[in-house]
Specification:
Blueprint lengths: L3 H14 L22 H23 L3 H11 L3 H11 L1
């Protein structure tokens, strides 16, 4: 009888190969992995950057004349000319 520590790596190797074909590619039924983990610091940084961007856009819009708000409303409804004008202001 073989020692148990010799058999464990073989079992794990077979388990890993269960979802791969002969070329090493994943096959149908592969459960996948957890994906790329997100770091709490990076997540907080992205939230902060997005909030700053929103605040900047809201400030720029608040400084525009009332006619711009009409143009912005048209842009929100899909008017391409209005969208172009709004994007020029926000750059």
């Amino acid at each position: 009888m073989r020692p148990q520590w010799l058999e464990e790596p073989q079992d794990r190797t077979l388990e890993k190969l269960k979802y791969r074909d002969l070329n090493g590619r994943f096959t149908v039924g592969n459960p996948g992995g957890p994906g790329r983990p997100t770091n709490e610091v990076m997540r907080a940084k992205r939230v902060k950057e997005r909030n700053e961007e929103i605040a900047r856009e809201e400030y720029i819009i608040s400084q525009q004349p009332p006619e711009f708000k009409e143009t912005l409303e048209k842009a929100m409804n899909g008017d391409l000319i209005a969208i172009n004008k709004v994007l020029r202001v926000l750059r």
